[in-house]
What does this fold into?
Amino acid sequence: MPVEHPWTGKRRCGIVDGVNAVGILLVAGLVLVPLAREYADFRRSWGLGRAAALGITGLVVPAVGIGIAAAAPLTAWPYAQWGVTVAAALLVYSLAVRAVGAAIEPARALRPPH
It folds into this structure.
């Protein structure tokens, strides 16, 4: 049974809403699960507190913003645009985490082992 889309007003099949919700949940899981593991790794391996680990994990937000900006010229090719967005975000996030790791390494070396 076709229903009206809330934003465009176009009619579409009702199953599309369920498929959209599943797609969003799937993508959220693909993003949030690795970030939760990363957070836990910062806490466990690096010995960081909650706020510090959350702050480092939160570097993913500006990294995605940089990825979006880097891919902006590719709007005519959506698949290429998303590919460049993801690749640039991963690169920037990795570099940022390495820089933070290098900056806190001297302090971690001075701490006695658990």
Observations:
- The chain has a mean pLDDT of 85.
- Helices lie at 15-44, 50-57, 60-71, 78-110.
